[in-house]
Amino acid sequence: MQQDYQPKNIETAAQQYWEEQQAFRADEKSDKRKYYCLSMFPYPSGKLHMGHVRNYTIGDVLSRFHRMKGCNVMQPMGWDAFGLPAENAAMANNVAPAAWTYDNIDYMRKQLKSLGLGIDWSREVTTCKPDYYRWEQWLFTRLFEKGIIYKKTATVNWDPEDNTVLANEQVIDGRGWRSGALVEKREIPMYFFRITQYAEQLLADLDQLDGWPEQVKTMQRNWIGKSFGVRFAFPYTLDGKTEKLWVYTTRADTIMGVTFCAIAAEHPLATYAAKNNPQLAVFIEECKRGGVAEADIATMEKKGMPTGISVIHPLTGKQVPVWVGNYVLMGYGEGAVMAVPAHDERDFGFAKKYGLPIIQSVQVANETFSTDAWAEWYAAKDGICVNSDKYDGLNYDQAVDAIAADLAAKGLGEKKVQFRLRDWGISRQRYWGCPILIINCPSCGDVPVPDEQLPVVLPENVVPDGAGSPLAKMPEFYQCTCPKCGGPARRETDTMDTFVESSWYYARYASPDCTTGMVDNARAQLWLPVDQYIGGIEHAILHLLYARFFHKLMRDEGLVQGDEPFKNLLTQGMVIAPTFYRAEPNGKKLWINPADVDEETDAKGRPVAARLRADGQPVIIGGTEKMSKSKNNGVDPQAIIDQYGADTARLFMMFASPPDQQLEWSDSGVEGAFRFLKRVWKAVHEHVEQGVVPAYRKGELTTAAQALRLQLHQTIQKINDDYGRRKTFNTAIAAVMELLNALGKFGEQTATARSVVQESLEAITLLLAPIVPHISQTLWAELCPGSDLLAQAFPEADPVALVQNEIELVIQVNGKLRGSLRVAKDADKAMLEQLALAHEAVQKLLAGGTAKKIVVVPGRLINVVV
RNA sequence: GCCGGGAUGGCGGAAUUGGUAGACGCGCUGGACUCAAAAUCCAGUGUCUGUGAGGAUGUGGGGGUUCGAGUCCCCCUCCCGGCACCA
Questions:
Q1: Which of A573, A726, A720 is nearest to A657 (CA)?
Q2: What is the rounded CA–CA span in Å between residue A64 and residue A66?
Q3: Is the pLDDT of residue A587 over 80?
Q4: Strand A319-325 to strand A260-263: parallel, antiparallel, or no bridges (unpaired)?
Q5: How far apart are CA A178 and CA A172, in angstroms?
Q6: Residues in Cβ contact with A796 at an 8 Å cutoff, skipping those fewer than 6 apart
Q7: For the stretch A31-48, what's the b/e string if a residue is b when 16 or more beta carbons lie within 10 angstroms of its beta carbon?
Q8: Nucleic strand B near CB of residue A726 (< 7 Å)
Q9: A467: pLDDT confidence band, cut at 50, 70 and 90?
Q10: Is the per-residue pLDDT at A592 higher than 90?
Q11: Is it the case that residue A601 has pLDDT exceeding 70?
């Protein structure tokens, strides 16, 4: 056996061996329990980043563990290959998005393979290839015919200089990122998925997801936002015609406190009022400035202007002025809201600012209302109505019932369940995406492309220039004939949101080569649902909600079974790293990569200064933040793999923190991981050099050997729980480290002792195998010549080794640790109380008095209260 | 702004069901080996106090429940994720 641990050689050899053996090919004829382990597929941005390494290592650890537990594992991989970065790269480097994407995929596939992931590469999918997206197009036409897809206008960010729609991330401080022009809101026609039709199911089925983190389910519930309220109208007369201004509220009990209404700038009533009101017209134009991101709208200064129009309060008959408010958005709800300044904080601020009346209509016991300042209780639902005529004295439920009934009697409203969730707009005015399957015919309207013309292939030799959609400039793409009437027609040049591709890839993996349908039903039934899904917490709402929605769409098309796609979900935290910078004369910060910096610490190890290695001059230490290009604090995983090997990179990633928390990058932590692997190697080497022996089965053991076996089997038990239930790999690794430390202190050399050492080293190798598969593969072959680790089962604890006759109990006085006792495992309570009272430290603190109470927690402690 | 998380030694983290706070690793200090260094090995390492045994104190801040709180409840601060066209 090699004396030194040389990761490069053993990793290459192990990877070659796995490939020859086709070790990770998912078996569709197996009678073992299936385990479909899926990590979110990467966007092929160029090269792997640490977040990928973390994500895929977690998935691989779970895959390999379940494989060793006897499962038929399927772990696929693919590419979320459409998207904006390819267009940006295309513009920057004058290269076609397709070529750029395919190059990146080739490079990143090589990188993934060098990580030693147990992936079934025969199932690889690439979403930008026609053999993938043609089925998305096929589903699109089905959904269009069903009415699940429809067209309406929606508001987008418009860059007036580049004449293009901007993504929210391309709007920086209200300006276009390339042109610097002030961004405007613009209404354009778009196709939508009617996801709201599934809102009730998406909400209710969350209860099926026992294997999902509670926080993710909570976020989805809040996002869907089911509310019980009242939709009602304020009538008004305009040009002799009676119209209705509809609003929705969850606080109908405060309806008698309405002092004005606020409408969106795009509301027809606002447009009407602006016709003869130039000031208002200017204000409406001003409201159109800025982007559409909700965070910006919610944090901007609330502004308004009266329209001069009044509507009639449906219950009091009083005049209610209508204002245009920049915080009211068209298309969300009714584009109009009733305003009750006394009981809504936003309305309160607005009323104070513009001197509008504030009328209290709800009172909470023992509180005093004042219009001077807002108080939390004003918005509470546990008060009773006041200043509300016939509704005075009613509580929330009673008031809502009575008011809804009165509105209904007048034909002006009714109770309504509403969702915060909005329909999913999927049209993108971009090139690098899946073409939308519609032909716009001047006489037939929107006609879906017939099946026999699928796929509509996106031309791959195009380089976009950032000004509008390239497809709209390509007659060879958009010129076509109407499938219905045969007349000349124009193909839709918008492409689909890339969230669409990532909403069904998990199902395609079951039968990636299927040429007859989106999925092969039988194979989909074999593999779905995904047993374990792993991905970043940043996908907790959108991606996961869309994928759940798609599963239901496909279920309703008869393509898949079951209501939900992902049985268990693990949301991984981000990878963060320190930042360093220098202030440049123009005030900008020049960010410096951590790899180029040397840190200096004081005597206690606190960082005090840092210097750029290249020039030896100081740099400023910034915060520890998410690895990103903009802060230049990314650490290239390839450099770590090249220097220490994939096993060290994997081990460090799993050891540094539990998977669902942030992971802080640390060079010295990587060295520590490498050091541990060297220690494992050395321990096996020393043992093997003296000859391998059969692992311990039976025989008389010394106390020390017995203790070692106890710890060994406790560790095996713990790690089964850590990998299986808890999914905390950091604690599993720590337990193996402790075991190795104990093994190092165990000096016995008898034949029996050596068989216990053999047993321990075999177990350590198997316990670590899911995390560091290459070194484990090699060490196993040394420990058990002629045997293959791939065929080994995961260790199970030996109940005999776990038996303990004596245990240690902690003695507390008033909850404070004062000593400990070794007692027989089955000592009874009276006996334990007696022993505790007799304890020296307890005697001292009792000082001759008696104990008030004695708490005995079996197996743990005795607390004497004095 | 709204929704969801988080905060424990010098650092990453452990404490799984309210029961020994700081496992394990990093860093640091001392020692062994070495001509020397690296590597490796051994020992120590929350803070304050004490010669010592020990004592006090300690989980972002403030309050509460409990025999007992890092863990449960209330209030606050700061940090992170998401907010519908980044993926």
A1: A573
A2: 5
A3: no
A4: parallel
A5: 10
A6: A716, A720
A7: eeebbbbbbbbbbbbeeb
A8: yes
A9: confident
A10: no
A11: no
Return chain A residues 799..828 having CB < 7 Å to nucleic acid strand B: 808, 810, 812, 814-818, 820
3-state SS, one letter per residue, for A303-345: CEEEEEEEEECCCCCCEEEEEEECCCCCCCCCCEEEECCCCCH
| DSSP per position, A270-283 | HHHHHTT-HHHHHH
Instruction: Report phi then psi at A55, rounded to 5.
Output: -55, -50
Q: Which residues of A652-679 are buried (b: 16+ CB within 10 A; e: fewer)?
A: bbbbbbbbeeebebbeebbebbbebbee
Max CA-CA distance within chain A?
107
Strand B atom within 7 Å of A603 CB? yes
pLDDT at A602: 63
Question: Helix or strand or coil: residue A29?
Answer: coil
pLDDT confidence tier of residue A111, bands split at 50, 70 and 90: very high
Q: What is the pLDDT of residues A176-200, one digit of tens each?
A: 988 889 999 999 999 999 999 999 9
Q: CA A168, CA A239: separation in Å to the nearest integer?
A: 40
Residue A830: count of CB within 10 angstroms of its CB: 9
Cα of A196 vs its chain's centroid, Å: 22
In terms of DSSP bridges, do strands A816-824 and A806-813 run parallel, antiparallel, or are they unpaired? antiparallel
Q: Name residue, tokens 């043992």.
A: A687
Task: Give me the CA A382–C1' B35 separation in Å, rounded.
Answer: 84
Pairing of strands A618-626, A575-583: antiparallel
Residue type (1 letter), A124: E
Considering only CA atoms, name the residue closest to the C1' of nucleotide B14.
Answer: A731
Give the angle A65-A641-A774 at the CA atoms, nearest 5°.
Answer: 35
- What is the number of other CB atoms lying within 10 angstroms of the CB of residue A554? 22
Other C-beta atoms closer than 10 Å to the C-beta of A641 total 23
Q: Which nucleotides of B are covered by protein (CB under 7 A)?
A: 1-6, 10-16, 19-21, 23-29, 39-42, 55-56, 67-69, 80-87
pLDDT band at A584 (very low <50, low <70, confident <90, very high): confident
pLDDT at A600 over 90: no
Which tens digit of pLDDT belongs to each residue from A668-697? 899 999 999 999 999 999 999 999 999 999
Distance of CA A856 to the CA centre of its chain: 44
List, in order, residues 6 or more apart from A597 with CB less than 8 Å away.
Answer: A580, A610, A611, A612, A613, A619
Contact (CB, 8 A) for A480 and A491: yes
Which residues have C-beta within 8 Å of that of residue A265, sequence separation ≥ 6?
A283, A284, A287, A288, A324, A326, A328, A330
Its ipTM equals 0.96
Separation in Å: B38 C1' and A758 CA: 32
Dist. CA A326–CA A339, nearest whole Å: 14
In eight-state DSSP terms, residue A860 is T
Length of chain A: 866
